[in-house]
Design a protein that fits this description.
Elements lengths: L1 H16 L18 H8 L2 H16 L9 H15 L7 H20 L4 H14 L2 H11 L4 H8 L5 H6 L4 H9 L3 H25 L4 H17 L10 H17 L6 H15 L1
Helix pairs in contact: 1-2, 1-14, 3-4, 3-5, 4-5, 4-7, 5-6, 5-14, 6-11, 10-11, 11-12, 11-14, 12-14
Length: about 280
């Protein structure tokens, strides 16, 4: 468990504080004020992530099942604890993504002795697809009334407790419904295997001599190109490179911020840190 929590914290630190990531929080950002609020997303809910690790291990042992895992309660508790500690939490969707990811990672570690991409992806897909309406309803209720971009997407989703029950909606169905107006969750719902494959690229970069910071910002650049079509070189080899990235960062932030990519970026970074630790 300590290995999992350590990897989570390292991944969050890299996702937020690594070098210039145009449009997203980073250590030199002038677009974002309270970077600690992003870190508190995780630290305020560590108990739920500890239980997520235990749940993944229990599923691998046959002590829990994918369709009655209780993952919805863990996500709900993480959202609740986050909202208690941070008045306006910046990325509650982190928990919708990372709680299932931690469960799947622990599942893979127990079965294979380490995180393997195939087992991880299989476990994550099963967890999202076969979760029942009880889990989905708990998550939906936790999201009702939240503010910001995520709150608007939930309001526009036409979800109701009755519909969730009647249609026997899974967590994947919930992500799809909210994702119609929220690109981060849409990407995760349909391309979580791609995020696992991106972890392999992150690991490979580090093994080839990239620092963790450099590997993290390169991983972000791949996501930004994939989701927003913004292509740039993340490498900093000179002062001019650094200044060019800062200029691009300001230009991107003026058009639209991309802090909602931090939860997606956290997936490959977490799997990577778990694999190389």
């Amino acid at each position: 468990m300590l290995q999992t929590l350590s990897a989570l914290i390292d991944a969050m630190d890299l996702a937020v504080y690594s070098y210039v990531k145009p449009g997203a929080p980073h250590r030199y950002s002038t677009c974002y004020g309270d970077l600690h609020a992003y870190i508190a997303t995780l630290t305020s809910a560590l108990s739920s992530y500890a239980r997520a690790h235990e749940l993944g291990t229990d599923i691998a042992r046959g002590r829990a099942s994918l369709n009655k895992s209780g993952v919805g309660e863990l996500i709900s508790n993480a959202i609740r604890d986050n909202r208690k500690r941070v008045p306006e939490p910046p990325m509650l969707d982190y928990h919708l993504i990372m709680i299932p990811v931690v469960v799947a990672a622990a599942y893979s570690m127990k079965l294979d002795g380490k995180v393997t991409i195939n087992t991880f992806a299989k476990g994550l897909k099963g967890l999202l697809m076969y979760s029942g309406p009880d889990d989905t309803l708990l998550v939906y209720e936790a999201l009702r009334g939240v503010s910001g971009r995520l709150g608007r997407a939930v309001a526009l989703s036409d979800l109701t407790p009755g519909r969730i029950r009647m249609e026997n909606m899974s967590l994947l169905d919930l992500l799809d419904a909210i994702g119609k107006n929220y690109a981060t969750l849409a990407y995760f719902a349909r391309r979580h295997t791609s995020l696992a494959e991106l972890a392999e690229k992150f690991i490979d970069m580090h093994l080839k001599g990239f620092s963790l910071n450099s590997a993290a910002v390169t991983t972000y650049s791949i996501l930004l190109k994939d989701i927003a079509g913004i292509q740039y070189s993340p490498a900093i080899k000179s002062r001019d490179d650094f200044l060019k990235l800062l200029k691009l960062d300001r230009e991107v932030c003026k058009k639209g911020k991309f802090d909602h990519l931090i939860p997606l970026l956290s997936v490959p970074l977490f799997i990577g840190m778990l694999s190389i630790s």
